[in-house]
Amino acid sequence: MVWSKGWRLVKIHQTYSVEEAARNQGVAKGTVRLWLKNGLPALNERRPCLILGGDLADFLKSRKKPKQTCKPEECFCFKCRAPREAAFGEAEFIPITQTNGQLIALCGQCTTLMHKRVSLAALQLLEGIRLITIKQAPDRIGIIRPTRLNDN
């Protein structure tokens, strides 16, 4: 799969040839021609065909997948590539700072570990998770004096 650099690099008041649009997006010329077949508007009256920058930016924006957001009781599973609820409704909370910590749970579908940063205030709002085990934060390692080999 070819990934373009994004619509933010397109100057909307400029026209692009197929080669210029490909160079701007970091894709092959054939990919831009495929975009033209799939609905990217172009000025085809003359050769080379020109693509308006505004049309190219709009086309690239429309191809962008919508952002997936997790509900408060869900974590994002990277194996399933989707928000999932915790297996058995259980999770573990490890405090990181005074105000937030990390929620660790198993995916309900594939049993992969999932991690989510959660504030302590939002911890009570997690209705979908029945059992939350709160672990104590690990102690910080203090200053340890190095031992000397010649000390008797």
How would you briefly describe this protein structure?
Helices cover 21% and strands 24% of the residues. The chain is built from 4 helices and 8 strands; from the N terminus they run E-H-H-E-H-E-E-E-E-E-H-E.
Q: Can you walk through the features of this model?
A:
The protein is an alpha+beta fold and 152 residues long. It folds into two domains: 7-63, Arc Repressor Mutant, subunit A, CATH 1.10.10; 74-134, no CATH class. Helix content is 21%, strand content 24%. The protein has four helices and eight strands, in the order βααβαβββββαβ. The chain has helices at residues 18-25, 29-37, 53-63, 120-123, and strands at 15-16, 51-52, 74-77, 82-85, 90-95, 100-106, 113-119, 131-134. The strands form three sheets. Strands 7-6-5-8 form a four-stranded mixed beta sheet. A two-stranded antiparallel sheet has the order 1-2. It has a two-stranded antiparallel sheet with strand order 3-4. Helix 1 packs across helix 2 (29-37). The N and C termini lie far apart (66 Å). The mean pLDDT is 83.
Structural class: alpha+beta
Helix content: 10-25%
Secondary structure tally, helices: 4
Radius of gyration, in Å, reads 26 Å
Domain module count: 2
Low-confidence stretches: none
- Pattern of helices and strands: EHHEHEEEEEHE
Outline type = elongated
Strand order of the largest sheet: 7-6-5-8
Main beta sheet: strand number and arrangement? 4 strands, mixed
Could you report the average pLDDT, rounded to the nearest whole number?
83
Whole-Å distance between the termini? Answer: 66 Å
Strand residue content: 15-25%
Count of DSSP strands: 8
Oligomer: single chain
